[in-house]
């Protein structure tokens, strides 16, 4: 199953930009548009997944007939002894010499439970102990309508009465039940089951609903018992409602130890989960962006956190990275992760400042620097081609050769791609206005679209939306933020479903000359419009998240 999942992920990544959300007649985007060349591969993988999934569901549904005692329902304080239960399991004797020859007929029918051997030894008092063994069968799998003729014949050959099979008593205790089985048995039948959580190294992170809170310590202890790798279990008790993107948590079980390490796509990250932001569910998105970035590019990571984008693009794509985060702890662990991953000195330049200031200073200065430098280098190359001496070139106060694709190709000078990553979904769009006038201070000789075009970065801006949000609504939000119409190249895609009717989206586009060269005086003209738009229902966050915007 893991291998098939990897194949699906590989197909998804190889699709690059061929995947986008498609709008229906009402302007709502409700489907993924996939490159037709990928469809046969997807069908094959999905068919295999479906077959295995059905087998797994059938097995789980049959095993569900054997559950923990009813008396544990509503338990809030864990009592392991209360989970002991004696059950009767269908069984058949099979000669040991026949196991290899016949297992094809009964292997999928085996009773599978943690700590219980499906093929058991007979008791010492049984005269056939040396020559035979006992095959325990899943009662749910012995429905005659689910057995093939070959299976029926084989089982009946060994004396199994399908209508009234012999049974074998098995004692099950707390150690034999899985985490999902225990939780389903304990929680009220009308409560949502808690069978999933996020794991960050040795930390299990839960986000329990109010109705489940009376059972939180029991849940924490069961996770600790069932997953040896987990040493700390915490529950989120508040939303991400502060400037530094972390949240309050309570310890449910285990050690109060929040510094951990995780590995993601070949990179290692150290973090203090109580002080910095980390979301393991974004692992696929991290990898997708790293794949999209061209080798040797320049990357500006505005809300870098501890480096899930910055570290791998520097490590795998040999990019020059400017990584920033306002949280001092995130900055500390970003620096630590640069060392852990042995990033070449100077490949990642880290900053601890406000995102808007980062755009208006670091990003701006580097863009201007590169444009002037490349233009000057190109001018020198052109001058040497026509026989000018270096002394004559250096004597000019400023000389400019227009940077175009044609003269770049004719020289040995190449302009790297550049990207801006803005992973702060709750408010990243509100920072887009910082790109207005960002190149207004360029020398007038360089304020030409043809010159700027190779240097303007691609933007990957993350945001939240409702399922009812249309592509036009999303583009309007960006349009209001920047005060100009969006280019046709603007793309909106689904990243993941965060909650019912709430999705994480990525808006991507390339900056355009009119925006970056606009007059600084135009900023205030659009500020009122942006504030008005931020009050609409589309942009509203829950109260505890809106506090973040003004804290």
Automatic annotation (TrEMBL):
Signal peptide: none
Leading EC class: transferase
SAM-dependent methyltransferase TRM5/TYW2-type domain: residues covered: 197-513
EC number: 2.1.1.228
Location in the cell: Mitochondrion matrix; Nucleus; Cytoplasm
GO terms of molecular function: tRNA (guanine(37)-N1)-methyltransferase activity
Keywords, in A-Z order: Cytoplasm, Methyltransferase, Mitochondrion, Nucleus, S-adenosyl-L-methionine, Transferase, tRNA processing
Highest taxon above the source species: Eukaryota
Chief subcellular location: mitochondrion
Binding site for S-adenosyl-L-methionine: 286, 325-326, 354-355, 423
Pfam families membership: TRM5-TYW2_MTfase (PF02475), TYW2_N_2 (PF25133)
Record's catalysed reaction(s): guanosine(37) in tRNA + S-adenosyl-L-methionine = N(1)-methylguanosine(37) in tRNA + S-adenosyl-L-homocysteine + H(+)
One GO location term (cellular component): nucleus
GO biological process, alphabetically ordered: mitochondrial tRNA methylation; tRNA N1-guanine methylation
Entry similarity comment: Belongs to the class I-like SAM-binding methyltransferase superfamily. TRM5/TYW2 family. Belongs to the TRM5 / TYW2 family.
Function: Involved in mitochondrial tRNA methylation. Specifically methylates the N1 position of guanosine-37 in various tRNAs. Methylation is not dependent on the nature of the nucleoside 5' of the target nucleoside. This is the first step in the biosynthesis of wybutosine (yW), a modified base adjacent to the anticodon of tRNAs and required for accurate decoding. Specifically methylates the N1 position of guanosine-37 in various cytoplasmic and mitochondrial tRNAs. Methylation is not dependent on the nature of the nucleoside 5' of the target nucleoside. This is the first step in the biosynthesis of wybutosine (yW), a modified base adjacent to the anticodon of tRNAs and required for accurate decoding.
PANTHER family on file: TRNA (GUANINE(37)-N1)-METHYLTRANSFERASE, TRNA METHYLTRANSFERASE
Assembly description: Monomer.
Name of the protein in question: tRNA (guanine(37)-N1)-methyltransferase
Species of the source: Arion vulgaris
Gene: ORF139029
């Amino acid at each position: 199953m893991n291998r098939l999942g990897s194949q699906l992920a590989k197909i998804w990544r190889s699709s690059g930009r061929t995947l986008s959300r498609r709008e229906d007649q009402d302007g709502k985007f409700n489907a993924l548009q996939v490159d037709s060349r990928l469809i046969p591969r997807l069908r094959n993988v999905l068919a295999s997944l479906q077959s295995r999934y059905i087998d797994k569901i059938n097995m789980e549904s049959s095993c569900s007939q054997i559950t923990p005692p009813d008396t544990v329902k509503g338990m809030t304080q864990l009592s392991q002894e209360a989970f002991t239960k004696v059950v009767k399991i269908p069984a058949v004797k099979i000669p040991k010499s026949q196991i290899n020859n016949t297992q094809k007929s009964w292997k999928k029918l085996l009773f599978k439970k943690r700590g219980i051997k499906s093929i058991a030894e007979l008791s010492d008092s049984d005269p056939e102990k040396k020559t035979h063994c006992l095959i325990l069968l899943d009662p749910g799998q012995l429905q005659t309508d689910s057995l093939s003729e070959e299976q029926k014949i084989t089982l009946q050959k060994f004396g199994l009465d399908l209508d009234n099979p012999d049974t074998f008593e098995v004692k099950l205790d707390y150690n034999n039940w899985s985490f999902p089985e225990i939780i389903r048995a304990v929680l009220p039948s009308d409560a949502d089951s808690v069978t999933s959580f996020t794991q960050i190294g040795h930390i299990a992170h839960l986000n329990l609903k109010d109705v489940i809170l009376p059972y939180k310590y029991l849940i924490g202890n069961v996770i600790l018992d069932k997953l040896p790798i987990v040493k700390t279990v915490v529950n989120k008790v508040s939303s991400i409602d502060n400037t530094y993107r972390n949240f309050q948590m309570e310890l449910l079980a285990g050690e109060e130890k929040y510094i951990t390490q995780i590995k993601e796509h070949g990179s290692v990250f150290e973090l203090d989960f109580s002080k910095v932001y980390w979301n393991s569910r974004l692992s696929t998105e991290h990898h997708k962006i790293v794949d999209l970035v061209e080798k040797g590019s320049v990357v500006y990571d505005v809300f870098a956190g501890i480096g899930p984008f910055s570290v791998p693009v520097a490590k795998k794509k040999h990019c020059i990275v400017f990584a920033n985060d306002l949280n001092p702890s995130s900055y500390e662990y970003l620096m630590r992760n640069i060392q852990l991953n042995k990033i070449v000195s100077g490949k990642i330049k880290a900053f601890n400042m406000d995102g808007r200031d980062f755009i208006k200073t670091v990003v701006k200065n580097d863009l201007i620097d590169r444009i002037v430098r490349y233009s000057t280098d190109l001018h020198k190359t052109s001058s040497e081609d026509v026989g000018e001496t270096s002394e004559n070139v250096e004597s000019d106060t400023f000389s400019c050769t227009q940077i175009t694709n044609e003269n770049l190709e004719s020289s040995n000078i190449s302009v790297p791609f550049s990207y801006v990553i803005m992973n702060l979904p709750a408010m990243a769009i509100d920072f887009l206005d910082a790109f207005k006038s960002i190149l207004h201070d360029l020398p007038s000789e360089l304020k030409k679209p043809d010159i700027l075009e190779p240097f303007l970065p691609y933007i990957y801006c993350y945001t939240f939306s409702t399922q009812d949000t249309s592509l036009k609504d999303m583009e309007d939000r960006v349009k209001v933020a920047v005060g100009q119409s969006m280019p046709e190249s603007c793309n909106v895609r689904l990243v993941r479903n965060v909650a019912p009717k709430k999705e994480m989206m990525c808006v991507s586009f390339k900056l355009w000359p009119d925006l970056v060269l606009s007059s600084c005086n135009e900023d205030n003209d659009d500020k009122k419009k942006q504030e008005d738009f931020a009050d609409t229902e589309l942009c509203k966050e829950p109260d505890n998240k809106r506090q973040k915007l003004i804290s």
